From TrEMBL:
Entry cofactors: FAD
Family classification: Belongs to the flavoprotein pyridine nucleotide cytochrome reductase family.
Lineage: Eukaryota, Fungi, Dikarya, Ascomycota, Saccharomycotina
Location of this chain's protein in the cell: Membrane
EC number(s) given by UniProt: 1.6.2.2
Protein residues bound to FAD: R60, Y62, K79, M86, S87, T156
Keywords: FAD, Flavoprotein, Membrane, NAD, Oxidoreductase, Transmembrane, Transmembrane helix
Protein name (record): NADH-cytochrome b5 reductase
GO biological process: ergosterol biosynthetic process
Protein source organism: Maudiozyma exigua
SUPFAM superfamilies reported in the protein's UniProt record: Ferredoxin reductase-like, C-terminal NADP-linked domain, Riboflavin synthase domain-like
Record's catalysed reaction(s): 2 Fe(III)-[cytochrome b5] + NADH = 2 Fe(II)-[cytochrome b5] + NAD(+) + H(+)
A Pfam family recorded for this sequence: FAD_binding_6
InterPro entries: CBR-like, Cbr1-like_FAD-bd_dom, FAD-bd_FR_type, Flavoprot_Pyr_Nucl_cyt_Rdtase, FNR_nucleotide-bd, OxRdtase_FAD/NAD-bd, Riboflavin_synthase-like_b-brl
Length: 278
């Protein structure tokens, strides 16, 4: 079954592939269109899933992990939560199972969407790319380095930004990512990230595990100020810092960044801030 995505009408789609990437997270792939058709799936847009669970229709918003302007398939990374009605239901599905989908939509409301950051993602991407595209005369205004700190599922919005800027870096000479998780099995999209780093040498990734396996060459414990000093760019007019993870991690990284001279960056950030928190 192949069907075009529609923003006002529910369409039934088959799951064409399921890839388990951690103990409780999988990537679900849906076919989107007839072979001759593509859909536009811009950065920052999301879709709705609907399923009949225990006799009632349940609707949830999800954001594609690999947004593309033209695509024939849709990929969603979904973590199954113990009390998550939809996520637990999706975890029971197999290849060939069907579900109702509609979209894409622009900016979800804060109350109804699990990813209320899409407008911020798009604005931040534009701020990074347009700053360098439109800066022609003052070289000090050109962004040359971007440091990123992500934790757990916070990698999802970060990956959307990376897909846009790593392949279109303009003047970006270096993009450095510190990605923290509890165990190696909790690292989401590691294969995708490693391939990106291998293909684009100006992008570097550094993993941090709280509970590492015996043979682990990466960093261990929690993110420290020393790690920021070691792997990320220093505070400079041409450098920026992006943070996306659990609240406790964000607060500690903000504290460290302030101690290192980054004097801007709050939980409510603006896209042109030197330190931006999703």
């Amino acid at each position: 079954m192949k069907c075009r995505l529609h923003s006002t009408k529910w369409k039934q789609f088959k799951i064409s592939h399921i890839k388990k990437i951690s103990k409780d997270t999988s990537i679900y792939t849906f076919n989107l269109a007839y072979p001759e058709n593509d859909i536009n799936l811009p950065l920052g847009h999301h879709i709705q899933l609907r399923a009949k669970i225990n006799g009632k229709h349940v609707v949830r918003y999800y954001t594609p992990i690999f947004p593309r302007e033209k695509t024939k398939e849709l990929q969603l990374m979904i973590k199954s939560y113990p009390n998550g009605t939809m996520s637990k239901y999706l975890a029971t599905l197999t290849i060939g199972s069907t579900i109702d989908i509609r979209g894409p939509f622009g900016n979800p409301s804060l109350d109804s969407a699990p990813y209320p950051l899409q407008k911020e993602i798009e604005s931040y991407r534009d701020a990074l790319m347009n700053k360098n595209k439109n800066t022609q005369h003052n070289e000090e205004e050109i962004l040359t380095q971007l440091g990123i700190v992500a934790g757990g599922s916070g990698i999802t919005p970060v990956l959307q930004v990376l897909h846009e800027i790593v392949t279109n870096p303009y003047h970006l000479e270096r993009i450095s990512l510190i990605y923290a998780n509890e165990t190696v099995d909790d690292i989401l999209l590691k294969e995708e990230l490693d391939k990106m780093a291998e293909k684009h040498p100006h992008f570097q990734i550094h993993y941090v595990l709280h509970h590492p396996p015996k043979r682990w060459n990466g960093e261990t414990g929690y993110i420290t100020k020393k790690m920021l000093q070691k792997y990320l760019p220093c505070n400079d007019k041409q450098h920026k810092l992006l943070i996306c993870g659990p609240l406790e991690m964000n607060e500690s990284v903000l504290r460290y960044s302030k101690e290192l001279g980054w004097n801007k960056g709050f939980q409510k950030s603006k896209s042109n801030d030197k330190v931006f928190v999703f």
